[in-house]
Write the structure tokens for this entry.
Amino acid sequence: MIEYLIGVDGGGTGTRVRLASANGVELAQASAGPSGLSHGIQNAWTTIMQAIGEACAVADIGSPPLSSMAIGLGLAGVHNKEWAAQFVASDPGFAALVLGTDGFSTLMGAHGGEPGAIVAIGTGSVGEAMLEDGSKVEVGGWGFPAGDEASGAWMGLRALNHIEQVIDGRVAGGAFAREVIEACGGSRDAVQVWLGRAPTRRPMRAWRAS
């Protein structure tokens, strides 16, 4: 018997979880680190389970068995069907599981399942729409580093490419280049070290159109 509903929004920056009763009454929310599938299937599940545990603690319901929970997830990286299949195969035992992209879950949440459009820009970027006839249109969402135009990761790559050219003397630098170089350590060697440690996580922003 399903007693609880879990909604998960997981990306390259962070994970948000909402816990509700079986009749849809919200009980708690929680957040955790990134759970986009590009960070690894096991990492995604570990992060999601951590957030679910925190939500249960906030709701003061103890640790209900997973067999009493139905979970719906919108995760970055689901476009990769191999990753998606591996994620579903690693289901730790929920009563029911529905997996979609974070773009699609954003579209459904923004418009309550009605026709509309969203453009989400954060670590990655994607545009989705549902038309009046129920058909879907998707643009972008190709993922880092090949796609994700205008995303934080995309802009970061271009900023770094610019300072590489400035340090080489191939292009003239300005205040922007100086600040980025300083933020990365202030020298060619320091920038190389920074690049080796650089994450792809960036703050998320979303724009909605009706």
About this structure: The radius of gyration is 20 Å. The chain is about 35% helix and 25% strand.
